[in-house]
Design brief:
The structure is a single chain. By secondary structure, the chain is mainly α. The radius of gyration is 17 Å and the shape is globular. Helix 3 packs antiparallel against helix 7 (about 135-150). Helix content is about 80%, strand content about 0%.
Length: about 200
């Protein structure tokens, strides 16, 4: 995997455009200025969580006796399920989430940004090519920066693109992610069969 493909995968999995409606729903009772500060704080916490999983995910996997092929296969399945939800979104629960207090860590930082699929991807990068860990960290920083910028300007983007525009972009990202998920699954399966 290259820097470009790792960054693209992380952006797709973080799904900042798909998270815009959820972020706006959760933060709707907070003033726009304070909303941006909360988003910056939460994205920074998500970066810390993902950095821990990038650098220490290998130790976590060894401690749990999970092989790299098993991680690749499970990661492919998780990404596939995420991509299917992006292509065919379920809006039945959207808008029902209500937070009277300011959210902290959950649900914005974890799991909306640093969710199980994103953690799996960073651990997968670290286990498949540990010699390129600095490259993966750079990919994580770029993906995090792009996602943060999108979420900070969530109000403006929501007005510009509209609900239909956001849905169309999310579905397109879901289709790209489906292909990546299948490739990840096949790579993991190939590694397992070679063992």
């Amino acid at each position: 995997m290259t820097l470009y493909s790792a960054t693209a995968t992380l952006i797709l999995v973080m799904d900042p455009l798909g998270n815009i409606p959820m972020f706006l729903s959760i933060l709707r009772h907070i003033t726009p200025g304070k909303r941006k500060r909360i988003i910056l704080r939460e994205t920074f916490i998500a970066l810390l969580v993902l950095t821990i999983f990038l650098f220490f995910g290998n130790l976590i996997l060894k401690g749990m006796n999970i092989s790299p092929p098993a991680l690749a296969i499970s990661g492919g399945i998780i990404l596939f399920l995420i991509s299917i939800r992006m292509i065919f979104p379920d809006h039945t629960h959207e808008g029902r989430i209500s937070y009277k207090e300011e959210p902290f860590i959950v649900p914005l930082a974890v799991p909306l940004i640093a969710g199980p699929s994103t953690m799996t991807v960073v651990m997968l990068l670290a286990t498949q090519a540990p010699q390129h860990i600095s490259l993966w960290f750079l990919a994580l920083l770029i993906a995090w920066f792009i996602s943060t910028v999108i979420l900070v300007f969530a109000d403006s983007l929501s007005k510009i693109l509209g609900e239909r525009g956001l849905t169309a972009i999310e579905r397109l990202m879901g289709m790209i992610l489906t292909t990546m998920a299948v490739q990840m699954f096949l790579t993991g399966l190939g590694d397992f069969l070679r063992l």
